[in-house]
Structures are given as C-alpha cells and as structure tokens.
Amino acid sequence: MNPPDDFFAGALPAVAIRVDLEKARREDHSWKDPRNLRASYFAGDDVVQLATEAFTSYLGKNALYGALAYPSLRRYETEVVEILLRLFQARPGATGSLTTGGTESIFMAVKTARDWARQHHPTAGTPTLVVPRTAHAAFSKAADLLGLRVQRMTKSPDFRADLDGMSRAIDRDTIMIVGSAPPYPYGVVDPLPDIAALADRHGLWMHVDACVGGMVLPFVRDLGHDLPAFDFALPSVASVSIDLHKYGYAFHGCSALLLRDQALAEYQRYQFDAWPVGSYTTMNFIGSRGGGPVASAWAVMKYLGFSGYRSRVANMLEAKRKFIDGIRKIDGLEVFGAPQGTHFSFGSPSLDITVVAQEMSQRGWSFARQVDPPGMLLLMNGFHVAVVDDFLRDLDEAVSGVKAGRLRADPGPAVYTV
Ligand SMILES: Cc1ncc(COP(=O)(O)O)c(C=O)c1O
Q1: How much is the pLDDT for 413?
Q2: Cβ(342) to ligand 1 under 6 A?
Q3: Radius of gyration of the chain measured on its C-alpha atoms
Q4: By percentage, how much of the chain surpasses pLDDT 70?
Q5: Cα three-residue angle 216-361-182, rounded to 5 degrees
Q6: Cα-to-centroid distance, 250 and ligand 1 (Å)
Q7: Are the beta carbons of 193 and 110 closer than 8 angstroms?
Q8: Is the pLDDT of residue 418 over 90?
Q9: Pocket lining: 190 vs ligand 1, CB cutoff 6 Å
C-alpha cells in the first residue's frame, strides 16, 4: 500500500509504527558514527542524554509564548543569550535573541540591518550587502527575500575574504558588510579587523557569521592560539550569529543573533497590530518555535560550562592537527589555507581529488565535498582523534590507487543540500 493510502484506509497500530521508526532509522547514516566527518556534533553520551531529557521535557511548549505562558523557557533564553554575550565580549547594553538556526539568525541580521539603514544609512538605489565569496548561502537567500542586492566576491585569496575586492565593491547603496568566523568553505577565519575597518570607514552595518565557530573560537582563543579579533571587541561589529545546534551541542533548531546595542533590537522586531486577537510582536522570522531546542541548549551549556567546552575544543584541535599533519605527508595533497577552528578542507593540485573522495566514500567515510577548488571538507568531533590513523591509511591507499591509475572518476555532483 502507498503511504498516503495507509492514512486514508484507517489508523495503524502503534506497534507497526514503532517497528517502522526503528527499522527506517537504522537504514540512515548514524550521526554518532566516528567515520562520519560531516556536520554532526557529538560531545559525549552524557551530554546527549541530558540534552534529550531537556528536549523531551519541553515537547509541546512553544517558545513563541515564552513571555506569556512559559516563563522557564523565557529564562533559559535569557541565560543562554547572557552567556553568549559574555563569550563574545559584548559591552553593557548589548542584547540578543534565539532563533531556529543559522539561516534564521542570518535572515534576521539582514532584516535588522535593512531597517536600520532605512533610518541611518538611506540609499538611492537597492540597498546592497558586500560579502566574501565564502559567506553562507543564507545571506543571498535573505537578501533575495528581503528585496536587497548582494555583491558577492568571486575570489578568496589565501582562502579568506577578498579585502581589496570588498573595498572596491562598496558604493553609495552598500548598507551591510559580512565576515565569517570561520566560513563553512575552507574554515579559515576572515580578516575581520580589516573588514571592521571598512565598515567603520563607510558607516556600514557589520555582521560576523559565527554560526559554526561561535562555540569554538572563544575556547580556541582561551587555549592560547593566535586568532584575529572576531567579536564585539571590534567596535564596528553590529551583529553576530552563533548556532547552538552546532558546537553548542543543542538539538536542532537553536541559534542566536546578538546585537551590539539594545537600541538596534527595534529594527529586528516585527510588529503587526491590525489583528482581531491583538498585537503580534516577534524578533523571529518564524512564529511557533519548539521549546525543546531552547531547553537542550540551556541544559548543555550549564552542564559543560566554559571548561567543558574548552576541553572538547582542545580535543578537536588535536584531532585536526593529526589529520592535517597526516594529509600533508601524503604526496600530492594540499590543505587549503590555515584553518583555525574545527573544520578544514583539502584537495590536490596534481591528482583528481574527486576520485580519491569517491574511494573514501566507498570505504565507509562520510564527509562533505567541495567544488572550487575540488576537495574534501572534514568537520571534527569528539570521537575523531580515535579514527585519524584509519582515515589516513585509507586516504594514502586511495591516493596511491589514483596515482597508479587503478581508480577512475565516477563522481557524483558535489552538493551542499538537495
Ligand atoms: C558559517 C555558517 N553560517 C551559517 C550556516 C547556516 O546554518 P543552518 O544550517 O543552521 O541554517 C552554517 C551551516 O553550516 C555555517 O556553517
């Protein structure tokens, strides 16, 4: 029977549904498999257990009504935002709110900048964002939906933002400039102090996208590694996006948008009053929002504390160092740039990396591919230190196979999503 026929024919017994849930789930990739080097974030079974308890105890509670009906959710949101503001060296008077993910945080940052610019930086033409080539696709999506224009760079020298290009692209219609800490492609932090200087010179709204690095870089810095400033210590940074459902180890959908000053929150707010049930006010794009993600973010943050995140970051940096050292020892491979966070990519100037990638997939490794330059992108997790040697051995054999002509190209397209 087709799935829709099931529905119309009558109810299925719970046991049949449980069997399907169990079986179907086992056929998926496991997000906790150490051979999975894609974007999934594991900080230990104890963390997953606590996040699960927090999440499930808030099933059915809608964060949209936090202020009215669920004060505990409102308190969790406030506490999570306060922690993030401190991690990002915000000054007194800064504020923030939680969203359902990086895309929503970015969307709201662009909306806030647009409405701020209408008052403080009006333009004759279509307001424009100047963004590095590597800025997340969500900036283009947001601009498209909000009726704005994007000037996206076409180069990324040293795998970072093209400062000269960005400087040349700024014109009278530019309202916003973006840097990432770090971007998803390559994982190399943009020259944020220089981008901030451009923002300052032209009076632009600067956004730092720390969706993937927000719960990583503060700890990288604390561990004594060299990093460009990436937070509110840069005076022109107006907003920052940080995902809790990535290296914050909350369950999906939880992210944050931080603002330098409470006064800017008025540009983020959407208010609609001509409605029979009264005023509708929200800081989000979406309306109803699960309480579970918020509760899981709060629980994990309180449980791990600063030192818990720092030790996990230290462990992932160690894994990254081992992967990179090993990759550099394999003749023909090249790591792209100097990635400071917990993900990086690599390719080859001399051999077809897509064939290597295909062989690695066949050997059971799961990772993202990169198109330009062709490459493989690896995201570190707590358990990856344990599999470095296995990965490097397989990689070495795959590279040898390509060099000897034993392996041939049959690559699928590299896609981020379908
Ligand atoms: C740097 C960066 N920004 C934004 C996003 C978008 O986040 P989400 O998939 O939660 O919408 C990602 C996702 O990987 C990212 O790496």
Answers
A1: 58
A2: no
A3: 23
A4: 97
A5: 20
A6: 14
A7: no
A8: no
A9: no
Q: By three-state DSSP, how is residue 178 classified?
A: strand
Atom 16, ligand 1: which residue's CA is nearest? 184
Fold exhibited by the domain 51-302: Aspartate Aminotransferase; domain 2 (3.40.640)
Identify any residues that bridge with 178 across adjacent strands, giving them in sequence order: 207
Sign of CA dihedral 201, 204, 205, 207: negative
Domain boundaries, the chain: 51-302
Give the model confidence (pLDDT) of 281-295 as tens digits. 999 999 999 999 999
pLDDT in tens, 302-353: 999 999 999 999 999 999 999 999 999 999 999 999 999 999 999 999 999 9
Instruction: Report how far apart the first and last C-alpha atoms of the chain are (Å, whole number).
Output: 27
Tell me the sheet residues that pair with 255.
Answer: 99, 243
Q: Is the CB of 211 inside a 6 Å radius of any atom of ligand 1?
A: yes
How far apart are the C-alpha atoms of 245 and 220, rounded to whole Å? 19
17 Cα distance to chain centroid: 33
CA dihedral 164, 168, 172, 178 (to 10 degrees): -30
Q: What is the pLDDT of residues 183-209, one digit of tens each?
A: 999 999 999 999 999 999 999 999 999
Of 136, 156, 252, 255, the one to substitute when testing ligand 1's pocket (max ligand atoms within 8 A of C-beta) is 136
Shortest-distance Cα residue to atom 5 of ligand 1:
102
pLDDT given at position 417: 57
Give the residue with greater pLDDT, 90 vs 407: 90
Question: Which CA distances in Å does 394 have to 33, 318, 362, 365, 375?
Answer: 17, 20, 10, 9, 16
Count other C-beta atoms under 10 Å from residue 330's C-beta. 17
Q: 250, 296 in Cβ contact below 8 A?
A: yes
Residue with tokens 């969706």: 211
pLDDT of residue 32: 87
What distance in angstroms lies between residue 332's CA and the mean position of ligand 1's atoms? 31
**Ligand 1 centroid – CA 213 distance (Å):** 10
Cα–Cα distance, 154 to 133 (Å, whole number): 6
Strand spans (E) along 348-411: 368-370, 375-379
> Which atom number of ligand 1 is nearest to the Cα of residue 104?
11
Q: What is the mean pLDDT of the chain?
A: 95
Which residue's CA is the nearest one to ligand 1's atom 2?
Answer: 211
